[in-house]
């Protein structure tokens, strides 16, 4: 990954927009450059911008979101960062943009936006915040942590890995290199181990918890089931006969009840007709009154219309008089308002002539007042400015005097303490020397401690050697015992093999198991054969019963057809009679009093309708109801016949299928016996022998023969299995003994290896202890030499050197003196600048005061002139118009005129309305007069018609007519009652006839005489008894079959279960071995191993970097301390030093090597072509600084672009290309050189 350019805006103290293009001059010609500037100027902000553009965070700020952004420059409304980079020859552009509302500095923070794009094609790759970070990680191969450890080495994190303890170093390695996957692998293996162990234990427990039936129990269950099935078939036949008997009794009882109910219903219907006869007579009497009812209502309606019209005419006459009075009053009011409007118009014209003279005067007064106010404000402002400027003059004069006094004091101090000026140059070098002396002193103390620890370790190792020798003897003895046990087990196994070989037993077992599996088949075939023969008997009985029922229904339906034809013929005859009677009714209706009959010629017979027609209609309705009942019963019989036919056909089909099952069972029986015979022949031909005889072909249906064969197979199979288990157990004992002997041999060899290793470690510890003693002596000599050189260096400056124990206080005193002198010098220079500036300000104030005095005098003269002119014009206007306001006066007059005009319009509207109402009422009055005359004439005519109709009716007076008239609801109710009573009689008679016919058919049944001798209660009791017996037999058969099937499944499943246990045991052995190597609950076993390998690789890469930096040091991993590091000092006889004993410069060199090595280590996915170091280099002396810079030059020569952040002067001199960041005092902002500023 190579950084090509960086552009950012308003980040921390770097306000404004800036862009650094690393592909152009001066960066293109010099791959090594320095970012310089004072502390707090914003050098690290440049690196923050890179992180922000890529990962939306910085090393110092973990979160930048909608609600918080501490990176944005104070007082700005937005910040921005964009970076262009190259990965594997392809260029990308990534940015981050955060704004406040409306772009204001005090606006609320908005949701950030971002973008990742292909810089070559400008294609947008991602714009969502979270997804964009993941896409950057995918493209670069670096997440934020790896980026800050490989490309950008953050400030304060430079030596984090070197100074970390073992646990922290493990976390850093895991974070940087992704070795957390090894922890997950270790945890998964441990979880797999526990899961496999649990599954194995579960299968073993399951195998131990299964119980099987004995052969005696199985045979007993099969015999009981066969007996119950035979009894079940007999019970089914008997139950069919009892059900038919019970059905006949139920039909008889139902028919008898129907006859009794029919007779009761018929009598009830006839009684109801008698009880309601008075109401029916009243209905007949009301029919003539119903015919006159419409004409009577018309007469009443005519009388009501005349009364309503008379009332309307009288009301209209009163309203017409009221409208005349209202019209006269409205006319007088209209004349008065018209005269008032003319008077106001004349007043308005007189007022307008005066206002034309006043308006010019008002305009002049307004202009003069505005000028007067402006002039007075100007005078007041000038006076205020003069007061303020004189106050500033006084304050500034006092400040100049104060600054002169302070400048004099600082100059005297600098002159007096001129010697403190040189301390800043030497204090750093002396402090570095003191750090070296103390580091050597600490190292010497640690070395002495290490010698003591080494002596203790030596004693411990001697004890371990003795323990290892004793353990070796114990393991040799255990091995000899295991060898003897193995030989005994081998002998026992060989003896059993000679009696009955495992192969022969397995062959016998296979044959017997094959037979046992097929014995179940024979049992199933035999059971199926018996069940099929029983089903045939049951189905034949059911078929006979259904055929009998079908014949019975057919006979009943033929009787119903005959009755239907008779009723239909009778109904057709009644319909013809009713039609004839209807034709005669037409001729009767045409008869007139005094005229001859057109049919018979007689002039004396009555006109009333014949009473026979009512009887005919009632008889027709009864015949229709009876015919409907017969149709319903016929339909029911047809439906029952239709439902029985499929049942009969189904039983026949089932009989055919059952017979086919019998034949198939016979065929399967023969085939199965042939298979068993063939397998047995092959077994005997190979030398096998069994004492079991196969059943014959004729044994089908004989359950005892099948059971005997099954028991024989099972008995001999158990004997073979017993012998086979004995052989297998002996074999397993031998294999376990062999395994234990092998384990004991391994333990003996391991004890021998441990003994040799302990003796070798004892030798190594002896050598190492002596080396540490020599190293401690060398360290003591180096310390004395370094202290002597330091005292000589201090003495050269004519300063007395303190003792080592007082050196810190002495350094503090000298550092305070040096800092005070430098601070005083800066303050003195600043006071000089202030004095020059304030004197220039005082001169400018004097000039400004003189100018203000002249302006104030001119402004006062202008105010006096405007005041005189305004008083003259105001007096003229008062004489002409007083103090009245022109606009208010005009408005008042307009309002007066408007009110008068409005009142006039209102009066005109009122008059028009009165006139319209008067005309409308006149029209209504004339209309009511004409309508009353018309309705009175209609009333007279309607009365005449009613009198004529009443005279020709059976009623003598209106009262007689009204008493005969019924209301509509009562009429409808009586008609409905008549229809209901007639239908009830017809329906009851039809049901009674049908019930009597059914009873006659039941008495004619072929078994009626026999069945009638047994009471229905006894038949019902017998039917329930046989049903319970059959249900009980079915439950027992089902329970026995379920037990047998469960036992068969258990036997089959147990064989499969042993296979599962064997497979699970193999899997458990494998995962158990893997778990013992790298598995652990928290994943630390495999993780630590992987981290150790990673650390070895890191040390190797770091030593390659150290060879470039300085050949004196070499990093090594402590062999017995996990992830601890130590340094080999080749200049001190290859002495091993703890990393904590390194001086500041030495720590920097080693940390830099580790940082570069980490950069190489974490960049396994991406080539790192850019490197930024955010480190001060302040702890390095000139020689070490040269070494570090030479190393950076070498890295630059290899093609890397390197940027270094520092304020060390020597580094600035060595690096020609510098990116300077300038800090503005007191403003809180910084800036870079103008060539990097982006202008709009």
TrEMBL record:
Biased composition regions of type Basic and acidic residues, renumbered to the chain: 316-334, 998-1008
Species name: Vibrio kanaloae
SUPFAM superfamilies membership: P-loop containing nucleoside triphosphate hydrolases
Any GO MF annotation of the entry: exonuclease activity
Rad50/SbcC-type AAA domain span: 5-208
Residue ranges, annotated region (Disordered): 312-334, 996-1017
Protein name: Exonuclease SbcC
Pfam family, one: AAA_23
């Amino acid at each position: 990954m190579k950084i090509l350019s960086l552009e950012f805006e308003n980040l921390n103290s770097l306000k404004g927009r800036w862009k650094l293009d690393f592909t152009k001059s001066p960066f293109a010609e010099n791959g090594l450059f320095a970012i310089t500037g004072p502390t707090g100027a914003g050098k690290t902000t440049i690196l923050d911008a890179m992180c922000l553009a890529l990962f939306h965070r910085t090393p110092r700020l973990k979160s930048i979101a909608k609600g918080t952004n501490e990176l944005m420059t104070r007082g700005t409304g937005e910040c921005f960062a964009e970076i262009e980079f190259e990965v594997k020859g392809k260029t990308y552009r990534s940015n981050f943009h955060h704004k406040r509302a409306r772009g204001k500095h005090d606006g609320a923070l908005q949701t950030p936006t971002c973008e990742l794009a292909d810089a070559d094609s400008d294609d947008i790759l991602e714009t969502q915040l979270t997804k964009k970070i993941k896409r950057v990680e995918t493209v670069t191969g670096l997440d934020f942590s790896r980026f800050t450890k490989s490309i950008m080495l953050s400030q304060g994190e430079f030596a984090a890995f070197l100074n970390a303890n073992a646990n922290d170093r493990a976390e850093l390695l895991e974070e940087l290199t992704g070795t957390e996957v090894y922890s997950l692998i270790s945890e998964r293996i441990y979880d797999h181990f526990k899961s496999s162990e649990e599954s194995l234990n579960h299968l073993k427990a399951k195998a131990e918890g299964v119980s099987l039936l004995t052969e005696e129990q199985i045979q007993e269950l099969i015999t009981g089931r066969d007996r119950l099935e035979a009894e079940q078939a007999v019970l089914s036949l008997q139950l069919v006969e009892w059900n038919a008997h019970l059905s006949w009794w139920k039909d008889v009882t139902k028919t008898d009840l129907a006859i009794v109910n029919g007779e009761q219903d018929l009598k009830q219907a006839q009684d109801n007709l008698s009880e309601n006869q008075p109401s029916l007579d009243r209905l007949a009497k009301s029919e003539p009154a119903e015919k006159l009812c419409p004409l009577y209502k018309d007469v009443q309606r005519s009388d009501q219309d005349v009364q309503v019209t008379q009332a309307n005419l009288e009301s209209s006459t009163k309203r017409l008089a009221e409208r005349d009075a209202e019209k006269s009053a409205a006319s007088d009011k209209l004349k008065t308002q018209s005269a008032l409007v003319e008077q106001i118009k004349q007043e308005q014209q007189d007022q307008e002539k005066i206002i034309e003279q006043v308006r010019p005067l008002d305009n002049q007064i307004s202009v003069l007042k505005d000028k007067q106010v402006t002039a007075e404000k100007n005078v007041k402002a000038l006076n205020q400015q003069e007061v303020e400027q004189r106050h500033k003059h006084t304050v500034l004069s006092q400040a100049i005097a104060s600054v002169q006094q302070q400048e004099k004091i600082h100059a005297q101090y600098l002159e007096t303490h001129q010697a403190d000026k040189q301390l800043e140059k030497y204090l750093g070098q002396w402090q570095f020397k003191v750090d070296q002396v103390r580091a050597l002193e600490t190292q010497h103390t640690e070395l002495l401690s290490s010698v003591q620890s080494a002596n203790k370790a030596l004693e411990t190792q001697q004890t371990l050697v003795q323990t290892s020798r004793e353990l070796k003897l114990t393991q040799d003895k255990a091995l000899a015992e295991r060898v003897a046990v193995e030989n005994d087990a081998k002998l026992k196994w060989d003896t059993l093999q000679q009696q009955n070989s495992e192969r022969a037993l397995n062959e016998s077992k296979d044959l017997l198991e094959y037979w046992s599996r097929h014995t179940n088949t024979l049992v199933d075939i035999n059971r199926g054969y018996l069940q099929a023969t029983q089903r045939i008997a049951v189905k034949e009985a059911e078929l006979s019963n259904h055929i009998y029922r079908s014949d019975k229904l057919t006979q009943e339906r033929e009787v119903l057809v005959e009755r239907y034809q008779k009723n239909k013929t009778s109904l057709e005859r009644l319909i013809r009679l009713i039609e004839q009677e209807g034709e005669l009714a037409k001729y009767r209706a045409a008869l007139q009093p005094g005229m001859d009959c057109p049919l018979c010629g007689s002039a004396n017979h009555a006109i009333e309708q014949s009473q026979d027609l009512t009887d005919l209609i009632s008889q027709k309705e009864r015949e229709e109801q009876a015919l409907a009942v017969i149709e319903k019963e016929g339909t029911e019989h047809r439906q029952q016949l239709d439902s029985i036919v499929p049942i009969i056909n189904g039983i026949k089909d089932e009989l055919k299928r059952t017979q086919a099952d019998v034949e198939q069972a016979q065929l399967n029986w023969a085939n199965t016996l042939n298979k068993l015979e063939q397998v047995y022949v092959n077994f005997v031909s190979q030398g096998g022998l069994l004492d079991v005889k196969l059943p014959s072909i004729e044994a089908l249906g004989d359950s005892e023969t099948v059971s005997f064969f099954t028991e024989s197979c099972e008995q001999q199979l158990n004997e073979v299995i017993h012998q086979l288990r004995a052989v297998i157990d002996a074999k397993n004992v031998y294999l376990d003994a062999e395994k234990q002997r092998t384990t004991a041999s391994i333990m003996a060899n391991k004890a021998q290896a441990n003994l040799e290793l302990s003796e070798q470690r004892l030798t190594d510890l002896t050598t190492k202890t002596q080396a540490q003693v020599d190293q401690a002596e060398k360290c003591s000599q180096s310390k004395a030499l370094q202290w002597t050189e330091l005292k000589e260096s201090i003495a050269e400056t004519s300063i007395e050197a303190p003792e080592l124990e007082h050196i810190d206080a002495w350094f503090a005193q000298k550092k305070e003196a040096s800092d005070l002198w430098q601070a005083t010098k800066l303050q003195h220079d600043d006071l000089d600048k202030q004095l020059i500036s304030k004197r220039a300000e005082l001169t400018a104030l004097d000039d400004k005061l003189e100018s203000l005095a002249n302006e104030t005098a001119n402004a006062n003269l202008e105010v006096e002139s405007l005041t005189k002119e305004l008083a003259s014009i105001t007096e003229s206007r008062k004489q002409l118009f007083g103090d009245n306001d022109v606009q208010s006066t005009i408005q008042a007059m307009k309002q007066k005129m408007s009110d008068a005009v409005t009142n006039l319009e209102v009066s005109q509207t009122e008059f028009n309305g009165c006139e319209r109402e008067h005309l409308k009422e006149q029209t209504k009055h004339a209309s009511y007069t004409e309508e009353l005359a018309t309705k009175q004439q209609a009333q007279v005519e309607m009365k005449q018609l009613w009198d004529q109709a009443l005279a020709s009716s059976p009623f003598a007076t209106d009262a007689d007519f009204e008493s005969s008239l019924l209301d509509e609801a009562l009429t409808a109710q009586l008609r409905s009652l008549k229809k209901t009573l007639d239908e009830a009689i017809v329906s009851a008679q039809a049901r009674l006839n049908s019930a009597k016919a059914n009873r006659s058919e039941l008495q004619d049944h072929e078994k009626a005489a026999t069945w009638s001798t047994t009471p229905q209660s006894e038949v019902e009791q017998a039917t329930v008894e046989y049903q319970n017996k059959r249900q009980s037999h079915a439950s027992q058969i089902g329970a026995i079959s379920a037990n047998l099937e469960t036992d068969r499944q258990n036997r089959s499943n147990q064989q499969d279960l042993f296979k599962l246990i064997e497979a699970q045991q193999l899997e458990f052995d494998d995962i158990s071995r893997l778990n013992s190597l790298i598995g652990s609950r928290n994943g630390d076993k495999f993780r630590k191993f992987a981290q150790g390998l990673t650390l070895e690789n890191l040390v190797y890469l770091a030593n390659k970097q150290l060879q470039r930096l300085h050949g004196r040091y070499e990093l090594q991993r402590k062999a017995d301390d996990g992830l601890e590091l130590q340094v080999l000092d080749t200049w001190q006889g290859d002495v091993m030093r703890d990393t904590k004993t390194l001086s500041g410069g030495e720590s920097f060199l080693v940390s830099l090597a580790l940082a570069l090595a980490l950069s190489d280590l974490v960049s396994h996915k991406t080539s790192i072509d850019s490197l930024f170091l955010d480190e001060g280099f302040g702890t390095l002396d000139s020689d070490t600084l040269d070494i570090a810079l030479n190393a950076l030059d070498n890295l630059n020569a290899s093609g890397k672009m390197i940027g270094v952040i520092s304020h060390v002067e020597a580094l600035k001199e060595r690096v020609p290309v510098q990116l300077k960041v300038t800090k503005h005092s007191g403003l809180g902002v910084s800036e870079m050189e103008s060539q990097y500023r982006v202008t709009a």
